[in-house]
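quick one
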Amino acid sequence: MTPNIKPLVAGNWKMNGFRNSLSELGAMTAGYDIAMRNRIDMLLCVPATLIFAAAQEALGTRVHVGGQDCHFNQVGAHTGDISAEMIADSGGTAVIVGHSERRTDHGETNAIVKSKAEAGLRGDLLTIVCIGETEAQRKAGETLDVLKDQLDGSMPDDSTAAKVVVAYEPVWAIGTGLVPSAADVEEAHGFMRNNLTDRFGDKGAKMRLLYGGSVKPGNAEELMGIANVDGALVGGASLKAEDFLGICAAYEKLC
Ligand code: PEP
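structure w/ phosphoenolpyruvate:
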C-alpha cells in the first residue's frame, strides 16, 4: 500500500460473460457497502458486448464499468475495433490497454499501447496501462529492464495520478496460479514508483500501481500489504462476486 492512495480493485472478465453473467455484477454491487466504498474503488472491465448493460446494472452504485481495449482513433474504418469514446458513450468510465494478451495475440508494441492510452485519456477514461515480463525475461534477469522499456514506451506524456493507473502483471503469473515472491513484487513496484516519479514528479508519486497475476481472496492481503501495491487487476477471480468481494474485503482490512 501507499499512504494516502485509495486502492483500486479492477476486474478483467476477458472474453468471458454473457448477459446472464451480469447477475454476478449485481451481487458485487450489493456487497460493495458504504464501508468498502469509502476505502476501495471497484471497477469491472467486461467484454465490449456487455459494457452498456453492465453500466446500466451498476448505475448509482459507484461500481465502475470499463472496456478491455480501445482503438487509438475516435472513429473510422477499423472493423471490429471500438474507440475510447464508444466505451464512454456506452456508460464505461475506464479502459485497460496493453494487457499482455493484447501485446502477444495482437502484436501490440509499446508505441501502439501508448497511443491507445492517449486515446483513453482523450475519451476521459480511467486508463490502466499494463506492463510485465515473460518467464524467459525473468529467468534471464531482465525484469527491471523490461519494466523500464514498457513504462518509458507505453505511458502517455500527460499522465496524471487521477486518470492513469499502472498494472504490473508478470506474464507468467497470469492465469497460472503462480505468484512472485513478496520481495520480487516489492522490487518491481518500487522500481516502477521511482521511474514514474522521476518522469512525472508528484503525479508519479501518487499514481496507483496495481499488481495482477493470480490474485485470489487467499493471497490478496499479503500482496496488498507490500509497499507501493495500491490494488489489484484480477482476471479469473473477478468472474464470481464471492471471490471478487473476498479480495476487496481482504484489502479493506488494511485500509
Ligand atoms: C489478468 O488477466 O489481468 C489477470 C491478472 O488474470 P488472473 O487474475 O486470472 O491471473
